[in-house]
Amino acid sequence: GGNQxxxxxxxxxxxxxxxxxxxxxxxxxxxxxxGSFHESMNLASVLKLxxxxxxxxxxxxxxxxxxxxxxxxTVRASNIEDIAxxxxxxxxxxxxxDGQDVVAVFLAVRSAVERARKDYQMTIVEAKTYRWYxxxxxxxxxxxxxxxxxxxxxxxxxxxxxxKLLNEELSTQEQLDEIKDKxxxxxxxxxxxxxxxxxxxxxxxxxxxxxxxxxxAELVESExxxxxxxxxxxxAFETALASSTxxxxxxxxxxxxAQIKSQFGMDVMTIGQAVATAQAxxxxxxxxxxxxxxxxxxxxxxxxxxxxxxxEFGTNRVIDTAISEAxxxxxxxxxxxxxxxxxxxxxxxxxxxxxxDQLVHVGAYNRYMFGGKAKVPLVLRTEGGLGRCIAAHHSxxxxxxxxxxxxxxxxMPSTPYDAKGLLKAAVRSDNPxxxxxxxxxxxxxxxxxxxxxxxxxxxxxxxxxxxxATIVSYSRMAMRSLEAAKVLA
Length: 489
Description:
The chain contains 16 helices and 14 strands.
């Protein structure tokens, strides 16, 4: 069932592009009892996507029968007989078809595809079929009877189709035998190729984990030149703010901002504003950049980091979703695989735990699993850290967890300048990037150059040169370290 949420994203991409394409997602009955199934089906129905879901109900999830077995001691995986009835919960059509009948499956799926293409409506097709062998080589199949296996074996799809072709005089037995021989020879050749092939070279273990990052020289050079000026401008802003004689903090801030803009040609903004600015600039630059997640639209994001995007770009590119972290992450993977560059927001990094299967197994590992043929250019934005008095499940720092899976980049900016430049680099990266903003830094002010610039991913930034001690840090603690350095200097 790992492909359910990516299929949602892929169909969302095709709808956005108006390509006329329909996405088909195949999976088994066992995964329909997973939470990601509900999240994905709900999201697809709400967004009215050109998606056809084909559930191969082979009656068993590993050893547990979906709706019961004659063997004593077995339990049911579900209290319903037909998975297709769940379509009613999403207000979409549900179809049940004999999965052993090739023609019946073809006709059912064809009608579902036509509906998806014409009406942008998902259909859930349940094909009743059977699994001849066990789930694995060690499976003794004690959960079903020999009589049951024989009854289904007599209705093998090849047997059913062959009889139909012969009865309708659409084929001869000789032609069918020729097709069978050709298929068996193909399988034998493929098996021999696999057995005769050398084992992979251990030196290639880390190959195709990441897409190599490349940056336009002019953008990197301008960033290096701007970095020192940003520090000077931020220091000047703080000095102007501290020495201001204005009656209110707001007035003092605005005067200091005007001074920095006049003197350095830079804006002074918060990290939250820098994040919103970066997203808006990248969306203007590339129409394939979209923003999706909980409260990203009218609400403007949990910390207002998507404020103004809905007004400028509309609901096709700023997509509010249900509270469905797995579906959000998986849909972002699917969109990325179809050429989009989604920025998916998970409201708090604590909730990324719900999306880990999609983010890691389906997203981060995708390129490696497909031999370097895939690119997954997505950004998963989220908020981490404590300091807001919002309890344990909204205050975790989980960036260390996210640094373990290969294939993922993890970014945590320290300043508004970093936030804008790093987020723009993340959006342009062909790798999946988790971009974590510390909640306690959203109001932090700093100078930010106007116009386009990027900060290369994976490159250290010397915030304060010296020769007495070296402190390596990131995000909020990088700034606390700078504060300590000023006191100790």
